[in-house]
From TrEMBL:
The keyword Transmembrane helix applies. Keywords: ATP-binding, Coiled coil, Kinase, Membrane, Nucleotide-binding, Phosphoprotein, Transferase, Transmembrane, Transmembrane helix, Two-component regulatory system. Gene3D superfamilies: 1.20.5.1930, Histidine kinase-like ATPase, C-terminal domain (3.30.565.10). This is histidine kinase. Residues 318-409 form the Histidine kinase/HSP90-like ATPase domain. It comes from Catenulispora subtropica. It catalyses: ATP + protein L-histidine = ADP + protein N-phospho-L-histidine. Residues 181-213 form a coiled coil. One of its GO terms (molecular function) is kinase activity. Residues 205-269 form the Signal transduction histidine kinase subgroup 3 dimerisation and phosphoacceptor domain. InterPro entries: HATPase_C_sf, HATPase_dom, Sensor_HK_TwoCompSys, Sig_transdc_His_kin_sub3_dim/P. Its EC number is 2.7.13.3.
Length: 414
């Protein structure tokens, strides 16, 4: 798809054109040289440009061609030696005119040198060179009367007028160049800002996908591992119990595959809605069943209307409960767990167990708050913080561990 130019892009096009002319070290000098050559040949083949009768015009010779070509050649090197370029362009033009050659487009050599060098910031050199050039122009002979110079009052005023116009043009180009550079810098900053924003969004998306995969796989694989151990232990003595464990493994595998498929669908960038959308609080019952199949007795209490919770909050709440139960099953050595879910001004969660108090991989800080060294607790905190909420995890005095989370609903944070 072709990007359409924005208003800011269209407004910057003149500045881009100025910058191109200023930076061109081949195209502009070459075009000027061709125009000088063609114009000089025309001046000699068609007579004086001012309509005189070629009185006092010096014949075209090799030295005239050297002077005509000196200006464009010097402009080609203006970035390496700007002062030399200005001197060569002005002096070659003035010498050409003082020697009495036919008037031609060689004036453009001085014009381009003053404008381009002055626009690059060499104001003092341009002003000094232009004034000296204007003074020298007073001694340029006229072709209408042989030997007569331009020292009359009208000629002096005309020269001063052309000098001021040339300097004003150089100042104008300097301002245009400055605006062009500022516009180019602004566009570069805008491009860098967009790239940084794109990288930030991509990083956040990768983090979210990693968090989803961690929650899905850690929970499901933990349940599968527990049920597999149960099946191995009772396979010979109680085949029916082994069958229940294998059935739980089947259900956990199917659920995990469905959720992983949904995450991969988003990762591939498919625009169609995933076949298995991310689970929310409405599937807490299924989560409890899977935990109980792993041998954990779970008591679920719901206060308020869970359907009032926004989808993002509901999905985050489900993942927090899921990760909490995963930690209980894997690390706590608990027999029971209690889940309290309250939906009012926001979503409030409390998951408590009667295990050993500090699950493996969870340290206790000076404030009594648990700090996970793995990905589980940090991931839960990030989920809550991303929606403007908070989460704490700490051992319960005596025995057990408790996770408390609160996520406000959007209307409460606006």
């Amino acid at each position: 798809m072709t990007d359409q130019p924005t208003p800011s892009t269209r407004s910057s096009l003149p500045w881009t054109a100025w910058l191109w002319m200023e930076r061109s070290t081949v195209a502009v000098p070459l075009a000027l040289l061709l125009f000088d050559v063609a114009g000089t040949i025309g001046a000699y083949s068609g007579g004086n440009w001012h309509g005189d009768n070629n009185v006092g015009i010096r014949p075209l010779d090799w030295f005239a061609w050297v002077l005509v070509a000196a200006g464009p050649i010097a402009l080609h090197h203006r970035w390496r030696a700007p002062r030399t370029t200005l001197f060569v362009s002005l002096s070659s033009t003035l010498v050409y005119l003082l020697m009495g050659y036919a008037y031609g487009p060689i004036y453009l050599n001085a014009l381009f040198a003053v404008v381009l060098i002055g626009g690059a910031g060499y104001r003092r050199e341009v002003w000094t060179g232009s004034v000296l050039f204007a003074i020298g122009m007073l001694w340029v002979p006229t072709h209408s009367q042989k030997g007569q110079t331009r020292t009359s009052a009208i000629d002096v005023l005309s020269t001063i007028g052309w000098l001021l116009a040339l300097l004003i043009l150089a100042e104008l180009f300097r301002v245009l160049r400055q605006r062009a550079l500022e516009s180019a810098r602004a566009r570069e900053q805008e491009v860098r800002a967009r790239e940084q924003e794109a990288r930030r969004q991509a990083s956040e998306e990768r983090l979210e996908i990693a968090r989803e995969l961690h929650d899905v796989l850690a929970h499901s694989i933990s349940l599968i591992a527990v049920q597999a151990n149960v099946a191995l232990e009772v396979m010979d003595r109680r085949p029916e119990q082994a069958r229940i464990a294998l059935s739980a493994i089947k259900d956990a595998s199917r659920s995990a595959l469905g959720e992983v498929r949904s995450v991969l669908t988003v990762l591939r960038g498919d625009r169609a809605a995933p076949r298995d959308p991310a689970p929310d609080l409405g599937r807490l019952g299924h989560l409890v069943e899977m935990a109980e199949a792993a041998g954990l007795r779970v008591a679920l209490s719901v206060v308020g209307d869970l359907e009032a919770a926004p989808l993002a909050v509901s999905q985050a709440g489900y993942r927090i409960v899921q990760e909490s139960l995963t930690n209980v099953v894997r690390h706590a050595g608990a027999a029971r767990a209690w889940i309290l879910v309250e939906s009012a001004a926001g979503l409030r969660l409390r998951i408590t167990d009667d295990g050993r108090g500090a699950p493996l991989g969870v340290g206790v800080g000076a404030d009594g708050t648990g700090h996970g060294t793995g990905n589980g607790l940090p991931g839960m905190r990030e989920r809550a913080a991303a929606l403007g909420g908070s989460l704490t995890a700490r051992p319960v005095p005596g025995a057990g561990f408790r996770v408390d989370a609160f996520i406000p609903y959007p209307e409460e944070t606006s």
